[in-house]
Amino acid sequence: MEQTVPLKTLNLKNCSLIFIEVHSFVGLTCLSELNLENNMLESIIPGTFDPLVNVTKINLKDLFSLTNLDLSDIGLVEVMPRALYGLKTSKELHLNLNNLKHINNDTFVDMQSLELLDLNDNNLIKLDDKNFEGLINLKELRLNSNSINSISIKAFEGLNSLEILRIEDDEIQNIALGVLLITDSHIPIIRNASFLGLFNLLTLEIKNSTIENIEINALIGLFNLNNFQAKDIFRKIKVIPGFIFKDLFSLTNLDLSDIGLVEVMPRAFYGLKTSKELHLNLNNLKHINNDTFVDMQSLELLDLSDNNLIKLDDKNFEGLINLKELRLNSNSINSISIKD
């Protein structure tokens, strides 16, 4: 039978610990504070902290050699500012399955090597400015299954290496983010609903990307987007699929010039009802599919110059009832059909 030790505070600071046995804390169910500051631990075995069901404060400062820290499912209610200070080499931090309601600023300020932060299954309500300050190499942030209803405008500022952001099964009502800039990322694919919840986003710009695929519903929910720097996003994507822009109701100017496009599928621009300009010049388009522009009744300028178009068929430009300027120069057009 497991014996309970009525210890509430355990201070192991400066003990030169290099290893903790997985059952070391068995019986310490009354423990509320644990201090492991300034030891030589290289790893902590998953499950080591499981017996600490009532712990509310853990100090892990200056564990310089620790690369993977699992503090999941131990009932944590708060991580104090700089509690993780000194974990300069840590790659993964698991804080999932706890009772965290908020993130203190300066919590992760010294974790410049961290690549994975798991905050799934907590009780987080909002994300504030600078909550993730210092995580310059973070690649994956997990925030699924919280109660997040508000994300401030600078909540993700500085996460320049972020590739995967997971916010599912939350209650997001207000994300103040107006501008999202992602530079020098290594994102290979933009998956469905990647920006869902960013209702107030006005500008989306992804520079120097390695994106090779965009799923059909990747851009859903971006109803207010009016500045979309699409060229870098689509640079390695040779075919624009149908309905890819269907939720971008506010977009007025779309520039897809000089990115090596070989085909635009029917209804690719469906939903762009307010767009005034569309630039498809300097590509490798050989033909225009019918129904390509069918939903673009506000379009005034369409630039198809410097492509490889051979002929123009009936209904190629159906739907462009307000088009004022059509540019077709520098193609190889030898046939223009006449509607009976």
TrEMBL record:
Domain of life where this protein originates: Eukaryota
Species of origin: Sitophilus oryzae
GO CC terms in record: extracellular space
Pfam families: LRR_8
Organism classification: Eukaryota, Metazoa, Ecdysozoa, Arthropoda, Hexapoda
Iron-sulfur listed as a keyword: no
UniProt entry keywords in alphabetical sequence: Leucine-rich repeat, Repeat
UniProt name for this protein: Leucine-rich repeat-containing G-protein coupled receptor 6-like
InterPro entries, A to Z: Leu-rich_rpt (IPR001611), Leu-rich_rpt_typical-subtyp (IPR003591), LRR_dom_sf (IPR032675), SLRP (IPR050333)
Keyword Repeat part of the UniProt annotation: yes
